[in-house]
Backbone:
């Protein structure tokens, strides 16, 4: 505890983030094992192996790339929280981007770090509460939320989200946005395998491509 | 203990893990707010950040809740509640659970009665997505301080690099919005539903921005994103009726 005062804010975020991550991570990983003990049943080998082969290699690869691409955008505190609470690209990251934009702070600054962390923490807390209320009230809520009238609205949440967010960022970085948007349009329109389930893989591709374009434009003095 | 997908003990364990995650979120919220004050960020900015993050989260959180309901038909409520509150995303959880059940010829939609199958599905959903949980505690410091160094060396490039990352992500999702437009050659116009929804949301955002700048209505800027999200989602209802949804 003596050293506590000498740590900078960022150092203390790294330390607390790691400690919380280890504790919550262990609880998360031990959950299936606890189920085995409680119900006195072992996992079915066939289901386990087939299920893992179909999901783990792809999602681990995406997960590792996501750490490298999302961390600089989310900030350290935001990363520790968002990788635990999930729904990053469809909720936490847009929320943090919007918050930093409105507070007029840069993700790379310490001001950006705290604003991002605040928005992601609030978003996580609100999500947890809404889902708890929903789980408690599931019987009366199911017919409303499952209703065919509302279904189209919830099916289109991503386009509705990225339309608004896109306007802000594209209008501010018009020159830089042309190449990546064209690339993604061509890929998604002409490659049939690319759809909602694979958009997560294309995020890192888009990020790396845009960085490369940005570097070239920067060196040439265009941006 | 006798197995059921909705066994009370499951809710106790899941509730405890979710309480832990809630504590983590509160911890970081308090820590960041304290630091924001030290850095001289105005109290009003902090309050607005909190309020608009909370309002913005409502619609996506309800979508997550719908995911819990969809998965609860086969997995009960407790497991989807945990998986979608922590780390999960709807697209991943559905794929993972579906793949695991496929191995035993079962489909999503029938309630699982065999504890061994249920536990296997829980393992698959857990291990399949665990990359972030396992690696983030150990990698974040290196990645984050590495990028911070680039920003210190060349400030302008550091800012451009950040914008490039945001744009790269946004462009991937804009591309995704157009993924089914090609079906028009087969006479299926439903691929244009997401395009129209995105355009609606973009127009609402642009209009909010213009009005806010011209008339100096500050709250409109603060809530422009949730407003464009909700109006965009609502527009999906007539667009789907018009262009023929699935």
Residues:
């Amino acid at each position: 505890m003596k050293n506590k005062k000498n740590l900078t804010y960022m150092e203390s975020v790294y330390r607390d983030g790691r400690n919380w991550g280890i504790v919550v991570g262990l609880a998360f990983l031990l959950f299936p094992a606890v189920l085995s003990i409680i119900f006195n049943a072992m996992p079915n080998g066939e289901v386990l192996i087939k299920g893992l082969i179909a999901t783990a290699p792809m999602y681990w690869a995406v997960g590792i790339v996501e750490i490298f691409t999302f961390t600089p955008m989310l900030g350290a505190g935001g990363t520790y929280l968002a990788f635990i609470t999930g729904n990053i690209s469809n909720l936490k990251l847009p929320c943090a981007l919007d918050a930093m934009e409105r507070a007029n702070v840069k993700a790379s600054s310490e001001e950006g770090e705290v604003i991002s962390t605040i928005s992601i923490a609030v978003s996580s807390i609100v999500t947890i509460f809404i889902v708890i209320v929903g789980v408690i009230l599931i019987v009366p809520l199911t017919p409303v939320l499952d209703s065919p009238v509302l279904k189209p609205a919830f099916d289109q949440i991503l386009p509705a989200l990225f339309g608004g967010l896109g306007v802000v960022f594209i209008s501010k970085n018009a020159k830089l946005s042309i190449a990546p948007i064209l690339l993604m349009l061509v890929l998604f329109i002409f490659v049939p395998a690319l759809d909602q389930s694979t958009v997560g893989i294309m995020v890192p591709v888009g990020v790396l491509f845009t960085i490369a374009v940005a570097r070239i434009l920067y060196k040439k003095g265009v941006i | 203990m006798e197995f059921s997908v909705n066994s009370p003990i499951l809710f106790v364990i899941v509730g405890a893990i979710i309480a832990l995650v809630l504590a983590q979120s509160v911890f970081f919220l308090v820590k960041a707010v304290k630091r924001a004050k030290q850095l001289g960020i105005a109290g009003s900015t902090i309050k607005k950040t909190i309020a608009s993050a909370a309002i913005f989260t409502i619609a996506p959180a309800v979508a997550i809740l719908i995911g819990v309901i969809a998965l609860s038909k086969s997995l009960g409520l407790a497991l989807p509640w945990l998986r979608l509150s922590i780390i999960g995303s709807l697209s991943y959880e559905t794929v993972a659970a579906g793949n695991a059940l496929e191995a035993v010829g079962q489909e999503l939609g029938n309630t699982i009665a065999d504890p061994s199958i249920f536990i296997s599905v829980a393992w698959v959903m857990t291990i399949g997505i665990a990359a972030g949980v396992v690696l983030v505690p150990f990698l974040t410091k290196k990645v984050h301080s590495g990028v911070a160094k680039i920003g210190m060396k060349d400030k302008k490039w550091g800012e451009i690099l950040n914008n490039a990352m945001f744009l790269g992500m946004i462009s991937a999702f804009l591309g995704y919005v157009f993924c089914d437009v090609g079906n028009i050659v087969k006479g299926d116009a439903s691929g244009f539903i997401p395009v129209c929804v995105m355009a609606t949301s973009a127009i609402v955002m642009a209009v909010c921005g213009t009005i806010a700048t011209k008339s100096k209505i500050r709250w409109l800027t603060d809530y422009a994103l949730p407003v464009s999200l909700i109006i965009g989602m609502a527009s999906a209802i007539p667009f789907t009726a018009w262009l023929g949804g699935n």
Notes: The mean pLDDT of chain A is 91. The CA atoms of residues 135 and 181 of chain A lie 39 Å apart. Residues 7-136 of chain A form one domain. The radius of gyration of chain A is 21 Å.
